[in-house]
What does this fold into?
Amino acid sequence: MSRRVVITGQGAINALGNSATATMQAMAEGRCGIGTLEIRDAARLQIGIAGQVKGYDEAAHFGRSELVLYDRFTQFALLAAREAMDQSGLNVGASDPTRTGVVLGTSGGGLQTQDENYRLVYEEGKNRVHPFVVPRLMNNAATSHVSMTHGAQGPSFTVATACASSNHAMGLAFHLIRSGMVDSMITGGSESMLVFGGIKAWEGLRVMSKDGCRPFSATRNGMVQGEGAAVFVFEELEHARARGANIIAEVIGFAMSSDASDIVMPSRDGAARAIAGALKDAKLNPSDVGYINAHGTGTAANDKTECGAVRDVYGAAADDLMMSSTKSMHGHLIGGTGAVELLACIMAVRDGIIAPTIGYEEPDPECDLDIVPNVAREAKVEVAVSNAFAFGGMNAVIALRRAP
Amino acid sequence: MAENVKEKIVEIIAEQAVLQPSDVTMDATLEELGVDSLGLVEAIFAIEEAFDIQVPFNANDPSESDFDVSNIGAIIKAVETLVAAKG
It folds into this structure.
């Protein structure tokens, strides 16, 4: 009999709250975490809004010797991992520590560190930077620090597939446990791209909204960036049961695909292949799925392509399921987004609450699914699926079921 | 000045379309010239750099931006307006 994988811990920090519970609470209330972007030189940016983590004091969470090594994206990952591990009660060192690994997603890695230090050498003309710039900015820094903090000695790496990074990371963590390579994984994703250079780069692409994220609404005009992290403890079912762990949900399927077509324009076929693959991996029929957490970026191209792909795969069942984009509330966390969005899937299967797509104003005939407009809904959902479709055409879809 | 704007824009579009400037006619659409959405975003960046202007263009909905890209003539006219407004 094949090994089953469950979630025994969850943690988060993002514009909606400083814990997984606070994030879910905000999602259930349909609260918007998007507000004025407060960063250095914001006046030189055309984009003035973001889903920023406000009122955050790094010194309240970490000591000086830690902070010299932790970029903001690493701090977010560590805080989310700490919460997830506390909740899970998993003690990596209690048995074989090589049977626990860490796989996290991020797109940009230590961008705060890069931005600050480029300023120092290019703008201020300094000829010397702090000795830890490299270990702070590297993409695997968050994964490494989570591994060190919790003593996880098993397979550990960072996945960078832009907006699908977290889903790829969590999917691979699921596969590592299911295959028998490990018994538990700390997994999710983190991003902190709200820096002058990061936003300036996105502005160049002209897909950012200046006034809000309105996925699936005919009035949508682009994405809004967010920041933060979510981290989970994935564990083999019998392993979790043996230590009496509380089981939050079960991970039942995962698939990936590549569009192999365009570097920025999404492909309906590529998205559909990933969705269909995840259903097949989870041995699901389309009608088994009650909720989809959409990629739903709020761009013209993504939202209609995604709705088309969902129709292609789910067929008639597409009219019976609910699909929402929580990016309307927390913004697009790029490499961390799938992890925060998994919380909406957990809330659906565990609590029976469907997070809404807020900011919805007008129907778009090309997005004619039940996108749970503006207000959360109560519904009994057995299975939830989370979509992620990245720039570069890399797609990753993960499926959850209510805890066994 | 007007002739310069036209010439420069034709040059920018021709480069994106991999055509000779003489092939870029005023009533041609970007689609006809084979300039896709990414090419358009790049062309607008080149226009902003060339004329030191800010072009109000959102790739999410080109038709609803305050910048007419329906054909080459329209783009030139829109840029001329922006250049004039700059003073």
